[in-house]
Design brief:
Ubiquitin-like (UB roll); flat; ten-stranded mixed beta sheet; 7 helices; alpha/beta; 13 strands
């Protein structure tokens, strides 16, 4: 019995000690947070591969511009969530995590976006990142990536910042909503068709019946009046039906136009994804990543996207045509490099076309 009592007392004392320690630690932490100022900012930037577009100094400046730099602020007043939001508002930052240490150091760990190409066409000067994010070239550190030129017409506008896929998804969602609204607009017209048919049926059922006390002449007068009324009703029914059908057909035409727009958006989205995939194919190959300096993109939208490249070697342009079988076209070009140009000379041609399957056309 005494042993059990001693055990209970021991547990009670242990919990008492734990409570005292926790309370003291909380008080010390509270006091420290009030008195301890942020004295050190440690910014770590990761990602970006071989093409970093932002560094610690740029992030520190970004925090100052947005009045969120934590230096000199007490730990008690430090707003970590605001700092994270401000850092992540920088277009070159994919993710940010912020923690504060007991001794007044704020650690900011950043994952930056990785550009794989720069688009410089009419009205556009943006970097395309590996994950399809679009960020303005202005305001970030210039990086050496293939430059896209030409008259390519992408789905997104020149001032858009964000994921290219979001543009197509939101655009398609809005158009699908429009199709549903147009379908709803058909309902009153279908009701009018039903009412129109009902009106004609009522008139048809109102044909006169001869009774025992009615003369042939009176009955004939009623029949003639009915025939005239029925003729007018049939004519009105046909006209109303035609008008209503035309209204429905117009709504269906708008729906079909909207579906066509959706298909166009999907096509443009697939073209852009194909362009990114082509750039990644170049990037993964040591030879082509060093050889390709410029990609000329033409068309897009109603006109299929066409690609050409300007290599570092020689003084020629390589026409790749559409994006079909691009890896095979690059393999064919590499063989021509090794077995053709190395013997003929790099300055002989101004144009090389791989547009047609199994052919290399030089001019």
């Amino acid at each position: 019995m005494l042993k059990r009592i001693a055990t209970y007392v021991g547990f009670a004392l242990l919990w008492a000690v734990i409570v005292v320690v926790v309370v003291c630690a909380e008080r010390l932490t509270t006091k420290n947070n009030k008195e301890q100022l942020v004295t050190t900012i440690d910014i770590t930037v990761e990602g970006g591969g071989n093409n970093p577009v932002v560094d610690g100094d740029a992030i520190s400046w970004w925090l100052k511009v947005h009045n969120a730099h934590p230096e000199g602020i007490s730990l008690e007043k430090l707003d970590i969530a605001t700092i994270e939001n401000v850092v992540e508002s920088h277009t070159a930052v994919a993710e940010a995590n912020v923690i504060a240490t007991y001794d007044g150091c704020v650690e900011i760990d950043i994952t930056q976006r990785e550009p794989i190409a720069r688009m410089r066409i009419s009205g556009y000067d943006i970097y395309i990142t590996r994950d399809g994010y679009l960020l303005p070239a202005r305001g970030v550190t210039p990086v050496h990536v293939p430059v896209i030129t030409g008259d390519y017409k992408p789905l997104f506008g020149s001032g858009y910042v964000g994921y290219a896929e979001d543009v197509s998804r939101d655009s398609i969602a809005a158009l699908e909503d429009k199709i549903v609204r147009l379908e709803d607009e058909k309902l009153p017209h279908y009701k009018l068709l039903i009412e129109n048919n009902k009106t004609l049926r009522v008139i048809k059922r109102s044909s006169p019946k001869k009774n025992l006390f009615q003369s042939e002449e009176e009955y004939k007068i009623l029949q003639n009046a009915y025939k005239e009324r029925l003729s007018l009703a049939v004519e009105a029914h046909s006209k109303n039906k035609r008008d209503i059908r035309e209204d429905i057909a117009e709504l269906e035409r708008k729906q079909e136009e909207t579906r066509h727009l959706i298909q166009g958006i999907k096509s443009q989205s697939d073209e852009f994804k194909g362009l990114i995939k082509f750039i990644e194919t170049i990037e993964r190959d040591r030879f082509w990543s060093a050889e390709v300096v410029q990609i000329i993109a033409t068309g897009g939208g109603e006109i299929p996207l066409q690609l050409a490249i300007i290599p570092r070697s020689g003084r020629f342009t390589v026409d790749l045509g559409t994006m079909e079988n691009l890896p095979n076209k690059l393999q064919r070009l590499r063989r021509f490099y090794d077995k053709g140009l190395s013997n003929i000379g790099w300055s002989k041609y101004r144009s090389i076309s791989l547009r047609y399957e199994g052919q290399v056309v030089c001019r």
